């Protein structure tokens, strides 16, 4: 039975990251033993909200938050996750936090092991107490029982199947006696069908024991099965908070992706009906976190194709796999001829180019000048900007030509910098992105993959980048495939949009279709 | 996990233990060639075991804490040498001398270990090469102290320890009056083989301490830190402090072990005794089947026996085969370095394979296990 | 979050930042050396003969330090495996003498003979390093040691006959050290040397170094050289741009090994002796710390670093004994050299990783 005072109240929570408003006026209450399902697209603000609740350093380091959090009616502020833990809030993250060589029991009680006092401890301090293995066994097994799923406490983590590692993490949180609220961040992503069902049972039993659960997931059916209430977030706001029994999947989907304001479409031409220039057949890609299982797609010459979908479903794996950055298999044919996979050079030779989503890690030489960054691939692939000496034996770097082409792109894309010799790491995110684009353009490709082109850059630069892509497409007829988590952006610029879900193509629709259609595709086969 | 066929298991066993097996083969080949008597061999092995085992035991703790092979154990050796210089100067011999030297070495080792540990904490991911360079660096500081400050700023009474010029310690310090004091205590003779019981008892006691240590909270924390620093940190373990403690303990133990070593040798080469000791101890540990991230007490003893047997046999075998004893000496140095090289390479390639494996595991799990929809 | 463009930094701020990047230890070393030079005349030490010494030692050692550059550029780290190249050079030297060449020709032939060895050893060494990316430095050290001790055995066993090199009547094998004044001793240093009173400049050797440095500089401006710099700066970027990262790394290792071989030959011609057996053990750390003192880091090294570093390092090694001796009658130069060179390497190892991510 729920008390008069709710267990958790979040009042008027607001958060911005350097002027970018990420959470606006979130009000949420949670009762003891209640299971709340939290849904929303990527970027809706779910993880930020949980990070605030859990007291993570990132929040404090970026200016803190506004609003109040109350536990059992009392206001609390957490400076570190440890304080949140002390107040009874636990969180199971998506990335496992386990010691691979320890057993499940040792991990469950890591740094909270019951100890037997020893003489040495008197002299050398507490850590010289021996571990009470028997007590550990008992306590750990108790937690496992509380969780309700059977796992072998003796098994070493590295020997465990992935699903059991997840359960070990949950048992760890349950072994903390003071636990009152457990946050589960997409726990079923790595579970088999059976294990997922077992997890839902476990959540029910936790709820029965008075532990509240916040269950973050994209699997809407599971939410309806196990949750008491559903909260939907969109664009940093809490748009709905209803009882699970009173809603259904399509309603939830609509709340997740529907927009009240229709953004102006920049791309007003009809969907091109040209020949197929790239045919992707049964592609699979081993990109950790963005696995592609079985993707088949036909891309038309000269079109701007968008690829969207929720995070982790595989959309980023497609370009990374085709361009050879991650191990891939399947067949990809470009302009009639097959492209060998896993060899970046071959793709570049066939005039494909790729602007990676990982600007800093893959897209740029941060310590080198803009000139180097922009000119490098064109130099290496097409022997551009080189002066042949000694009858072609030596290819000397033509600094003048490099400077010229860099300045050309600085002008065209309005890259804000001190000079073409400035180091890439000193530019702002938006300008760095423009450099990456310039680098791709300098290759004069016939086909361009662009992955998350406007991630992390300011509004002005966003518009410019999208404009540049559209112009490039219109002027030179280059085929562009744009991968993005922002559905609205894709619908603005692209001719068609494909949605990836569960590592497969869930469907392709003309960009003019309403958002809800795409939303439905996004949640259809979620893994 | 799949069950492996017995053939595959055998192959895996050979692969994981290739170094000790290689050594057994070399020794098996050399023994008949050289023709030493079994008593002689046994005596040599027992002597070397009692002399070196404690030193090698000091290497176990940093490996547990993920710091890799502690080339900085040389710092503990230097502390022991300084302690022995003092006890020799104060003319305290025999068992009291040994005990006093051990006691004096402890604070010196602790300070050096603290310094070493702090530097290593600033060089995470490069601990081994850093501890390697630290040992060279400290050698310079040691020389500064022993070659210049002793006798001038630090009072040394007796002239037979000082260099003729009046300050600085001689390149060889005579320890005959401590010689074998510990070894001879409770020594017994079995069939012509002399066994230094007191020393052996100390070594056994140390082994028990290490076994007990693994069961303590601190031991558990070190094991956690050694496997994944970030997970340990997230669980609230003070990672830096734990690593620091492991180095301090190792250095102190190395100091005590060096006193045992030198009392057996009977004299001290002031400026070179400690330099090779690190390398030989590490080689011996690796020969016993240990790796950069995993070492047990069994590895220590197996390693001492195999390594030092090879050490004795090589020059004699070289002499018999090529007529040149020097070749044998170079051979044993080559094998020592080679063993460390092979162990390091195996460790790095294993690390790389594991990283690749994790990605594949995830993908496989998602491929086979993940929820399948129509 | 990315930093904003700093368009309005004053000169003072920029100088301050440059000094901070240069590092306090390096400033201390440079200041110390300057002090030595200033104090020298007052201690009764002949200033110009000291300058000559520094020039000489620079000319002997600079190529070995230059050998560090290719591998640092390609992201393989500091070449602790320099002995691999040194052994190739020693093979070239001993074989050249064994085959009967004398005078300047023996120097040329030594280089020619060491080259295939350098390429062979370098390729094997490079292949190994490619399998262990990230753990290069420690393994390189021990590969170097294993190679040195293996060849300690080889020098005894290989059938060298030349009496200038090998032991006389009783046994086989090469001597530990032997002079090469009949062969290529001083062949570069004496070439075009300039003598002004007590000051002697070994022009030939300096020109030879300048030639190699120029070739290195030129290489880094070619298409392949540019690719090498990119690989060291961000290997994933290079791979995404179609570069075969392993091939470039291999090339850099072969180049470093060859320069190591030539480097030891240059050292020998200056020093006047060929040193075998355990001598190569002592050649690596001085070269590594010299380039670090010159301003390089574990993944960025330029030719300027080589020049500055060698001057500072050799300066300290040469000046300290004589000056200190003259001043306080106390020779702590050896100890000082050990502390300075290793301290410098420690400093470099403990700095946060240099390349921005």
Question: What is shown here, in short?
Answer:
Chain A has 527 residues and is an alpha/beta fold. Chain A is built from 19 helices and 24 strands. Chain C has 14 helices and 4 strands.
Chain-wise SSE layout:
The complex is a heterotrimer of chains A (527), B (374) and C (357).
Chain A lengths: L7 E10 L2 E11 L4 E6 L5 H8 L3 H5 L4 E6 L2 E3 L4 H6 L2 E4 L11 H5 L6 E2 L2 H6 L5 E2 L1 H15 L14 H13 L6 E5 L7 H16 L3 E5 L3 H7 L2 E6 L2 E7 L5 H9 L18 E10 L6 E9 L3 E5 L8 H6 L5 E7 L2 E2 L5 H6 L2 E4 L3 H5 L6 H13 L3 E4 L4 E4 L1 H14 L16 H14 L4 E5 L7 H18 L2 E5 L3 H7 L2 E6 L2 E7 L4 H10 L3
Parallel strand pairs in A: 3-10, 3-11, 6-9, 9-10, 15-22, 15-23, 18-21, 21-22
Antiparallel strand pairs in A: 1-2, 1-4, 4-5, 7-8, 11-12, 13-14, 13-16, 16-17, 19-20, 23-24
Chain B lengths: L5 H11 L1 H17 L3 H20 L2 H5 L8 H17 L4 H28 L5 H23 L22 E3 L6 H4 L2 E4 L2 E4 H19 L1 H11 L1 H6 L4 H27 L1 E3 L3 H15 L9 H26 L2 H45 L5
Helix pairs in contact in B: 2-14, 3-9, 3-12, 3-14, 5-6, 5-7, 5-12, 5-13, 6-7, 6-12, 10-12, 13-14, 13-15, 14-15
Chain C lengths: L10 H12 L1 H16 L7 H20 L1 H6 L8 H17 L4 H29 L4 H22 L19 E3 L14 E3 L2 E3 L1 H17 L3 H11 L1 H6 L4 H27 L1 E3 L8 H10 L9 H26 L4 H18 L7
Antiparallel strand pairs in C: 1-4, 2-3
Helix pairs in contact in C: 2-13, 3-8, 3-11, 3-12, 3-13, 5-6, 5-7, 5-11, 6-11, 9-11, 12-13, 12-14, 13-14
Q: How would you describe what is shown here?
A:
- The complex is a heterotrimer of chains A (527), B (374) and C (357).
- Chain A is 35% helix and 26% strand.
- Chain A is built from 19 helices and 24 strands.
- Chain B is mainly α and 374 residues long.
- Chain B contains 15 helices and 4 strands.
- The two termini of chain B are 28 Å apart.
- Helix content of chain C is 66%, strand content 3%.
- In chain C, the strands form 2 sheets. A two-stranded antiparallel ribbon of chain C has the order 1-4. A two-stranded antiparallel sheet of chain C has the order 2-3.
- In chain C, a hairpin with a 2-residue loop joins strand 2 and strand 3.
- Chain C is globular and about 70 Å long.
- The model of chain C is unreliable at 1-7 (pLDDT under 50).
- Classes of the chains: A alpha/beta (527), B mainly alpha (374), C mainly alpha (357).
- Chains in contact: A-B, A-C, B-C.
- Chain A binds chain B through residues 81-82, 97-102, 106, 110-111, 113, 115, 118, 120, 126-131, 133, 159, 161-163, 188-193, 195-196, 286, 288-289, 291, 293, 502-503, 524-525, 527, and chain B through 1, 212, 215-218, 220-221, 223-224, 227-228, 230-232, 234-237, 358-363, 365-367, 369-373.
